[in-house]
Write a structure and sequence with these properties.
By secondary structure, this protein is an alpha+beta fold. It folds into two domains: 88 residues, Winged helix-like DNA-binding domain superfamily/Winged helix DNA-binding domain (Arc Repressor Mutant, subunit A); 169 residues, Beta-Lactamase (2-Layer Sandwich), CATH 3.30.450. It is built from ten helices and eight strands. It has a six-stranded antiparallel β-sheet with strand order 5-4-3-8-7-6, sandwiched between helices. A two-stranded antiparallel sheet has the order 1-2. β3 and β4 form a beta hairpin. The longest helix has 21 residues.
């Protein structure tokens, strides 16, 4: 046990004990906020970046110039917009390269997309949000699209419900009560009690559904992926327009997504949960 404690301390100098917020480099913190804002767009002007990130324009500009020097962002002289650059992709890809789930999920997602005709997605829970890690995109002209790194509210997401379902009950309830359940459509779940009911349905049937809860006309079916401890570490989903992903197809799609999730779980030596 002593060795474990000492190993954990190696990640920081002994001088830096106490509250984490006292150790924050403010300029770096603001720069990372700016970087995230740019990553969630297709290009922004300086004024748009400053407004969205709530960082002053001069500070945002200094952050941008610094990140540009490191290849994290690029400036388009023609459009006068800042965009994410290749080095940011390389840094982000380092996370995926260290994730056995992402590596093992990719071929399964591709097959799921081909068998259902709809886009398949891989996501995790992070900081009370769903983060999309990967996508196998259908060739249909009308389709769901989530850029890797995109964040989505837990309460409107099939992946979010699938992962919430396998948190310890008290933890899941606490998380549900902490969520900002903003309504996006008339179908959006807006209370912790209703979300926990949806979670219970997921456990009973083996898959979760986003029934046009985030975007009208789009439906999603998701199932969790388990590690060797039986913990839901990620989830896979099939998403598409409701004219193709009809309510009549949900059960069949749920079984396909559940089978794909189980295959990924086996590939990472995970424990398969029996939903029958």
């Amino acid at each position: 046990m002593k060795m474990d404690i000492e190993a954990r301390k190696r990640g920081r100098p002994r001088l830096f004990e106490g509250r984490d917020e006292d150790k924050v480099v403010r300029a770096l913190d603001k720069g990372l906020v700016v970087l995230r804002v740019i990553s969630e767009s297709d290009g922004l002007s300086l004024s748009e970046i400053a407004e969205t990130s709530e960082v002053s324009a001069p500070t945002a500009y200094r952050s941008l110039i610094t990140m540009q020097m490191h290849g994290l962002v690029a400036f388009d002289d023609h459009t006068q917009l800042w965009r994410i650059d290749v080095e940011a992709f390389r840094v982000g890809s380092a996370f995926l390269s260290n994730s056995a789930v992402s590596e093992q999920a990719r071929p399964v997602m591709q097959r799921l997309m081909e068998s259902t005709g709809e886009t398949s997605n891989l996501g995790i829970l992070s900081d009370r949000e769903v983060v999309f890690l990967s996508q196998a995109e259908t060739h249909e002209p009308i389709r769901a699209f989530f850029r890797p790194g995109t964040r989505s509210p837990v309460h409107t997401s099939g992946i979010g419900k699938a992962l919430l379902a396998f948190r310890p009950r008290e933890e899941a309830q606490r998380l549900a009560e902490q969520l900002d359940m903003k309504p996006f459509t008339d179908n959006t779940i807006c209370s912790a009690d209703d979300l926990m009911k949806a979670v219970d349905e997921m456990v009973a049937q083996g898959f979760a559904v986003d029934d046009e809860e985030r975007t009208l006309g789009m439906r999603c079916v998701a199932a969790p992926i388990f590690n060797s401890f039986g913990e839901a570490v990620a989830a896979i989903s099939t998403s598409g327009p409701s004219v193709r992903v009809t309510k009549d197809r949900v059960l069949a799609l749920g079984k396909q997504v559940r089978a794909a999730a189980d295959e990924i779980s086996r590939n990472i030596a995970g424990r398969i949960v029996d939903f029958s």
